[in-house]
Amino acid sequence: MAAKRLYERLFGLKNLPSELGDDAERQMLTDYLDSIIKYSFHARNQLLLSEGQEAGYIYFLVKGIARGYYNDPSDGQERTVIIWDELSIFTDPSGFFENSPSGLNVEVMAGSQLLFISRPQLEELYRLFPYAEVFTIRMTSHYSAYFAKRSHDLVSLSAWERYQQLLKNYPQIELKITKKIIASYIDIAPQSLSRLIKENGHP
Q: Does pTM top 0.85 for this prediction?
């Protein structure tokens, strides 16, 4: 059932290669994926990747939430730069796709369920099914658009507007992660977030 959700996500993308329109070819691809995909459940918050480590895996979030953050050397504070919610395919994009040490810590929250494969497994998948590389192309394009918009929002929106946008993009996220993480994502101190909520009420 978990893998079925992944396949619905992948095959629901637009403008896929013609090979993926063939039922027999699609079945061969999913059968192969079934043979290599691993599953994990995380009862507690857990780091999947730390800064400086090799980003060796790519994940699918069946259920739960995860985030990518770094520790700011200027003050030692965590800076959350990306949040992944249910049905996201995720990794540290620069570390994984550029095969370089990760610049992010990747943390999965308590109660999350994941599917994952390693970099060598992905490379072998693309060797056997070259057209499947479209998924990586789409993923890198998504990350480029995401970080461009995030950079724009950090300078063009107020902290309150960023908070409202976060709640819109990730419904009920305030029940899934701490205010400290939310504050780091919208780039303000936790006490500033508490003050904004007190002044404006919950959106």
A: yes
